[in-house]
Amino acid sequence: FIKRSFPKVLDVGAGACYLGNSLGSGEKKVSTLIAADSSPTLLNRDSDLRIDNGLEISRQVLQDEEMLPYDANTFDAVMSSLSLHWINNLPSVLSQINNILKPDGPFLAAMIGGDSLFELRTSLQLAELDRRGGVSTHTSPLAEVRDVGGLLEKARFKMLTVDVDDISVDYPSIFALMTDLQAMGESNAVVGRELGGIKREVLLASQAIYKELHGNEDGTLPATFRIIYMLGWKESPNQASPLPRGSGQVNLKDILESK
User: Helical H runs in the chain?
Assistant: First the structure.
């Protein structure tokens, strides 16, 4: 729980300003939010909605989400919600975020990663092997949980926190899942992908394999989304830091045993 206030905050990959529409509720800690996204249509989709949360939102269209056009030490905090998995050069973007943060400013983000949609991926792979004798790429590559901490550290963030949450959503069929993914804007965007839709026979085989390997007892198909949460702080001379290893005066074992 962060008790500080942040006058100027950047939302990278803001989409339709989902964060901005929810930040103003409760105790006001953010004064101005810069909502930045490369899609002007999505960014301005809900601009006509009147949300009285006392937050000033400024929408800015990015020419390239991998090149942040902001000066160093500009923002008190930077956030990103479920958009970083579209970044090709994640180490560069994280370094840029560190640069535009003010000293002791936090970077908070949630991104899709790890084994997300492993049920769909394995079903499609097995179906293609059976029907076509090979495997095509149908999902974009995702960052692994074990890599995120190293990327943040390489980008010069301090006091890192990384956590993960698996969210399972049940669908009536593989076709409903793929329709939902398309509506979310999460279609396959790999440059080297095979052009054209997936063959009907592969889809029907995938449906059967999905149901056999991963299906629920009620006939629905679970789809797992792994959300990686991260928090890092830009280095500052007055920043709190952990004590050197071995300098502790209290044994944690004694505290736990006393309870």
Answer: 20-23, 40-43, 90-100, 118-132, 145-154, 174-183, 200-214, 252-258
Residue 115 phi, psi (nearest 5)? -95, 30
Poorest-confidence range of 94-98, 107-111, 174-178, 183-187? 183-187
Q: What is the DSSP string of 61-117?
A: E-S-TTS----TT-BSEEEEES-GGG-S-HHHHHHHHHHHBPTT-EEEEEEE-TTTT
- What is each CA distance from 171 to 48, 66, 217, 224, in whole angstroms? 33, 34, 13, 11
How far apart are the C-alpha atoms of 166 and 171, rounded to whole Å?
16
Q: What is the pLDDT of residues 19-33, one digit of tens each?
A: 887 876 556 788 899
pLDDT band with cut points at 50, 70 and 90 for residue 106: very high
Indicate the burial class of 64 (C-beta count within 10 angstroms; 0-12, 13-18, 19 or more): exposed
Q: 25 is written with which tokens?
A: 């509720």
Query: Which pTM was predicted?
Result: 0.84
Token pair 């939902």 in the structure block, residue: 180
What is the pLDDT averaged over residues 34-38? 94
What is the structure's pLDDT at 187? 74
- Identity of the amino acid at 191: V
